[in-house]
Amino acid sequence: MVGLVVLAGGQSRRMGQDKARMAGGIRRILTEAKAAGLTPRVVLAGPQPRGEELEREGWTADADVVLDDPAHATCLHDVLVHVFNGDLPSVVLTPCDAVSIDREGFAELAAMPEGVPLDPSGRRQVLFSHLPEGWVAAPDAERRVEALFDDLEDQPLGSVADHLATVNTPDELDTVRSRQQRGIERDGS
């Protein structure tokens, strides 16, 4: 069994909107992960009372668990260290701004050996990692997120590697949508 942990943070200054609610947001990600058979599906919602808000608005209907950040957390590093304390099954991690990931991508990430996938340029994409059951995120003195994943092996991927992109600006979102539209037109769908 492989589950999913979605990073659903909060408002993005660069994006100008809440990434968890853009381009289908976490609702789309949870639906695609469910279709790929990933369970349990956990949403890390951000600061309290964000989890309740997302649940009330129907964004987390396909989630099994919705967690707000712990009170002491001041950054993503702190949240990951808190959540990955050895209690979770094997999971695929994904950020809410992964607007290209779909059920095929989740299935490939779940089937990939545990570790950190590499994008087409060979860069480690730690926020798409396949984490082993009982994984513990050992705190980094400098609170760097990437350092939490240093002990995990690199895993090259097939076609899903192209879908590991996240979007941080409106221009990046437009570029991804344009690329997706060209792919749909090319496939004749």
What would you call the structural class?
alpha/beta
State the separation between the terminal residues, measured CA to CA. 32 Å
Quantity of strands, as a count = 9
Order of helices and strands: EEEHEHEHEHEEEH
Question: On the 0-100 scale, what is the average pLDDT?
Answer: 88
- What is the strand arrangement across the widest sheet? 5-4-1-6-8
Radius of gyration: 16 Å
User: Helical proportion?
Assistant: 25-40%
Summarize the topology.
Layout: E1 3-7, E2 11-12, E3 17-18, H1 25-35, E4 41-46, H2 50-56, E5 65-68, H3 76-83, E6 91-95, H4 103-111, E7 116-117, E8 130-131, E9 154-155, H5 170-187
Parallel strand pairs: 1-4, 1-6, 4-5, 7-9
Antiparallel strand pairs: 2-3, 6-8
Helix pairs in contact: 1-4
What is this structure, in a nutshell?
By secondary structure, this protein is of the alpha/beta class.
Task: Give an account of the 3D structure.
It is a single chain. The chain has helices at 25-35, 50-56, 76-83, 103-111, 170-187, and strands at 3-7, 11-12, 17-18, 41-46, 65-68, 91-95, 116-117, 130-131, 154-155. The chain is 28% helix and 16% strand. The termini are far apart. The strands form 3 sheets. It has a 5-stranded mixed sheet. Strands 2-3 form a two-stranded antiparallel ribbon. Residues 183-187 have low confidence and may be disordered. It is α/β, with parallel strands linked by helices and 189 residues long.
